[in-house]
Amino acid sequence: YLAPVVHEIKVSRADLLGDLKKPSKRAAYLNMASECWYVLGTNAKGKPIGKASDVPDDCGVLILEDGAFNVARVAPHRRMETLPFYLWMALAKATACPREHEGLQGILGG
Q1: Mean pLDDT of the region 38-55
Q2: Distance between CA atoms of residues 60 and 69, nearest Å
């Protein structure tokens, strides 16, 4: 069964704080996802734009540090009892963005 995971990417402190003022947006993500993560980038000086304590406990936090993402807090996993059919279909039909090395996957298939 499909268990969507949301990654809310924040690129600036203002972006993060503005999003945190919208609990309805986060609630919408939580209603359609088994996990919700905030992914926090860095400022112009290379410092993280936030910390785990800035984000509500119902979301996980990944923080970019020294060029790698570190798990600052694991997202609570919630079992998806029901997912509206229209949403399930929309997610199932979604096309991922092609990656630079996408052609290499064919090697694995034989």
Answers
A1: 94
A2: 12
